[in-house]
Write a structure and sequence with these properties.
410 residues, alpha/beta, 7-stranded parallel sheet, 6-stranded parallel sheet
C-alpha cells in the first residue's frame, strides 16, 4: 500500500498532531506500507533528524499554519497527489483538508481526513463552513478518522456526513513509554524525594483548560496528614501568564510539596513516571470551543505503569477507562478530592489500576491505530469494555468495587 500523508505540524515543533503524524507513519511502515510524509521545515535544515525516520519525508518551506499559507498548500498537495499512484491520501489535520479535497480528481486513491477535536468547532464560522462546502471537503471517497468516540460524535453533529464514513480510531502509546528508565530510588534521590512520599505527577501545559487549579483545590481539601505525605510534580511549559501566576501563588500557600519542573525532555518524564505513584490531570470543559479530543498523555503514563485520576471531559474516557485503568470523575473539587484520597492511600487499588492501565496502553498501540486507519495487516481493532452508568455517577469496576465504593458518596 502506498500512502501520502500531509501534515501542517511535525517535529521540531511540539504538539499532538505532530506526534500523531510521526507515529502513524512509522507504524504503517512497520506493517508493510510505503509512506511519503509531507511536512513543514520551520525554516530549518532537518535532514539529520529526518534521516533517522523509517519513512520518506519531504519538507516544504513553512511553519505553523496561517490561512495565508492555503494557496501554497493547495499547489503542494496537487503536485504530490499527481506525482505517482497512491492508495491512500491522508490529511492528518484540517489545514490540509481543502488542499487534499481539491486534489481528489487527480487520483483514484481513498481520501482520508483525521479530526482531533478542537478544529471541528473552529471551522464553524460562516466563512470556513462556506469554504468547506465549496471545496467539497467531505465529498466522494472521503473517510473521516476521529481520535475518539467523543470526537466522532462532535463531528457528526457539526457536519452533514454519512455516519458510515466516520470512524472512531483511538490513538496509541509509543514503545518509548514502555522502555527502560532509571531506578525509582535513583530518580527520587535526584529530586530529593524521600522513599515514603506519595508522588503524583501531571504533564500538561499550564493553561486553564488543563485544570491545574482544580487539582490544587482538591489537594487543599485533603486531610492535613495526607497533604504532608504528598509530592505533586508539575511538568509542562507555562501558558496564560495570569493563570500561571495565580497557580504558583496559591501553590506557595499550601503545606503540600508542589514542584513546578517546567518543560522536560521525554526521557526525564519517563524517569519521573517510574518514580511516581499515579498520574493526575483534571481537565475542564471550555466555552471557547477547545476540547480534549482524546488525552494521549494518560495513555503514555499508563504505558509507564501509572494509573490516572482524570476528569470526564471530551474524549478522555477512551484514554482512561473509569474504574479499570484509573479514576474518571466529574470536574468538581469534591470528586477529585475523593479520587486523590483513594489513590494516595490505597496501594492495592493503585496496583490493580496500574496493571490494567499498562495493558490498555499496550493494546492501544500505534500499530493498531495504523492498521485500523489504513486497513492494514491483521492487528485486532481496539475494543473497549465501558460500563453504562448515569452521567452523574463514577464508573465502577467489579474487581475494585470495595476500594472505589466511597467515591460515589457525597
Amino acid at each position: 500500500m502506498n500512502i501520502l500523508l500531509l501534515t501542517s505540524e511535525f517535529s521540531p515543533a511540539n504538539g499532538g498532531i505532530g506526534t500523531y503524524a510521526r507515529e502513524i507513519a512509522a507504524a504503517a511502515t512497520q506493517l508493510g506500507a510505503e509512506v511519503k510524509l509531507i511536512a513543514p521545515d520551520y525554516g530549518k535544515d532537518n535532514k539529520s533528524e529526518d534521516s533517522n525516520l523509517p519513512f520518506d519525508i519531504l519538507r516544504f518551506p513553512g511553519g505553523l499554519h496561517s490561512m495565508r499559507d492555503m494557496p501554497g498548500k493547495i499547489r503542494l498537495a496537487r503536485s504530490h497527489v499527481a506525482s505517482r499512484r497512491f492508495d491512500v491520501i491522508h490529511a492528518a489535520d484540517w489545514p490540509f483538508f481543502i488542499p487534499v479535497a481539491l486534489s481528489r480528481r487527480l487520483t483514484q486513491a481513498r481520501i482520508l481526513m483525521t479530526v482531533h477535536g478542537t478544529e471541528i468547532n473552529e471551522t464553524q464560522t460562516p466563512l470556513k463552513r462556506l469554504a468547506v462546502r465549496a471545496a467539497g471537503v467531505f465529498g466522494p471517497r472521503t473517510s473521516i478518522a476521529a481520535n475518539s468516540r467523543f470526537t466522532r460524535e462532535l463531528f457528526r453533529q457539526r457536519f452533514s456526513v454519512d455516519s458510515g464514513r466516520i470512524y472512531a480510531i483511538p490513538l496509541g502509546a509509543s514503545d518509548f513509554w514502555f522502555g527502560g528508565r532509571n531506578a525509582r530510588s535513583a530518580t527520587r534521590s535526584k529530586y530529593g524525594i524521600p522513599a515514603d512520599r506519595i508522588v503524583m505527577v501531571t504533564v500538561a501545559r499550564l493553561t486553564r483548560r488543563k485544570g491545574h487549579l482544580l487539582t490544587l483545590s482538591a489537594i487543599s481539601a485533603l486531610s492535613s496528614e495526607l497533604r504532608r505525605r504528598l509530592t505533586w510534580l508539575v511538568i509542562g511549559p507555562d501558558g496564560e501568564m495570569d493563570y500561571v501566576a495565580e497557580l504558583r501563588r496559591l501553590a506557595a500557600t499550601t503545606d503540600c510539596d508542589v514542584r513546578f519542573l517546567g518543560r522536560l525532555p521525554n526521557e526525564q518524564i519517563r524517569d519521573i513516571y517510574g518514580a511516581s505513584d499515579f498520574f493526575c490531570l483534571t481537565g475542564l470543559p471550555e466555552s471557547s470551543g477547545r476540547v480534549e479530543g482524546f488525552g494521549l498523555v494518560y495513555l503514555e503514563a499508563g504505558a509507564a505503569g501509572l494509573p490516572s485520576v482524570a476528569t470526564d471531559v471530551g474524549g478522555v474516557a477512551d484514554a482512561v477507562i473509569g474504574g479499570q485503568t484509573g479514576l474518571l470523575v466529574s470536574p468538581s473539587i469534591e470528586a477529585v478530592t475523593r479520587a486523590l484520597t483513594m489513590l494516595a492511600t490505597d496501594e492495592r487499588a493503585r496496583s490493580a489500576l496500574a496493571a490494567q492501565a499498562t495493558a490498555h496502553a499496550a493494546h492501544l498501540s500505534w500499530k493498531r491505530c495504523a492498521a485500523d486507519t489504513y486497513q492494514l495487516g491483521s492487528v485486532p481493532p481496539a475494543k473497549f469494555h465501558f460500563l453504562s452508568m448515569p452521567a452523574d455517577q463514577e464508573p465502577r469496576s467489579p474487581s475494585l468495587q470495595p476500594a472505589i465504593s466511597d467515591l460515589g458518596k457525597a
